[in-house]
Design goal:
This protein is about 55% helix and about 15% strand. With about 325 residues, the chain is of the alpha/beta class.
């Protein structure tokens, strides 16, 4: 959760075009996740990103970060708030960037897109206009591919979520919000110092080229497929809820029309008999509309399914050539 800061809010810009992350910040994030794994605690870690926004280049520069404890209880949330204020005072005293620009979170196989993640991104965007969320995947990084992605809520999704915490089909249609434009992904660029670049050049000459022939692991692909099937099951459950809602609406309309027709026939009969007709009643009060089905969970599930499909495609694409090469060697 973002806290109220004493510095002036960030100037409202159209949108940042790039996120520059220093190698020091990446090492701190990976170290934080590895330490939690060594302690056999929750591997899903989170923390605060600090830096500044270059308004001329429209670049958000992340220069520092620090971890937070899991805020599952009110006590831990209060501890996190005190820790954030203390870190802000300490960094300011040593002339280090202390302005919050977002948060980071570790996740496995793009499973971050849920209600808690959406609430966190929304809270930070309410405090600062260009706050971002950096998602780090330790499992994919362990396979040799640094997985660091930056997200923010799209303007349409932010304005819609600010009005209503649960979306309906009509709201999504009016605001043109879909699972594809719910979040906006921003390119991430790793920024190194000159000495770091020199070291990387020296390490490049002694790199082990045998890693290029490593075949893709089946466990990674299997887990991705399991998550994809789980997402499809969630979509199926949401469709069943929507079908049930539509049946309820149809039954309500049928009963209402039958009531109006019976009422009209009864009044006509009473008028013919010279009796006073029945008073008119508000039909909408007698037959109330059922509560609409929220579409937010369906939207998040569809977003996760798309991420799993893209991840599987990327994983298979990088290994299909190696499999053909290995098959030719074996034959």
């Amino acid at each position: 959760m973002a806290t109220n800061q004493q510095q002036q809010p960030t100037k409202n810009m159209d949108s940042i075009q790039c996120v520059e992350v220093t190698s020091q910040v990446i090492m701190k994030i990976t170290r934080n996740c590895q330490d939690e794994l060594d302690k056999q605690l929750d591997p899903h870690v989170s923390g605060v990103l600090l830096g500044l926004i270059n308004e001329n280049k429209r670049v958000l520069e992340v220069t520092h970060c620090f971890p937070l404890m899991n805020s599952d209880t009110d006590e831990s949330m209060e501890i996190n708030r005190e820790h954030m204020l203390e870190m802000e005072r300490s960094l300011r005293s040593v002339n280090i960037d202390y302005q919050q620009v977002g948060f980071y979170q570790s996740t496995y196989l793009n499973t971050h897109c849920d209600r808690n993640f959406l609430d966190s991104v929304f809270d930070y965007l309410e405090e600062m206009n260009e706050a971002i969320a950096i998602i780090y995947d330790p499992l994919k990084t362990k396979l040799g591919h640094l997985s660091l992605r930056a997200f923010k809520l799209s303007n349409a999704a932010f304005n819609l979520y600010k009005q209503e915490k649960d979306f309906t089909a009509e709201m999504l249609r009016d605001k043109l919000v879909t699972y594809e434009n719910l979040f906006q992904e921003i390119p991430v660029v790793v920024k190194n110092s000159s000495l770091t670049n020199v070291l990387l050049c020296e390490l490049g000459h002694v790199q082990d080229t045998t890693s290029y022939f490593t075949l893709p692991t089946s466990s990674y692909l299997e887990k991705s497929m399991q998550l994809l099937l789980g997402g499809l099951d969630e979509i199926n459950q949401d469709l069943l809820k929507i079908n049930k809602f539509q049946k309820t609406v149809y039954k309500k309309q049928t009963d209402m029309m039958k009531y109006i027709q019976d009422r009209k026939e009864e009044n006509d009969r009473m008028i013919r008999e010279g009796l006073k007709p029945l008073p008119e009643e508000d039909v909408n009060e007698l037959f109330k509309d059922p509560a609409p089905v929220g579409r937010l969970e369906s939207l998040l599930s569809a977003n996760r399914i798309t991420s799993h499909c893209d991840m599987i495609e990327e994983h298979v694409k990088s290994g299909i050539g190696k499999l053909y090469l290995a098959d030719s060697f074996m034959s």
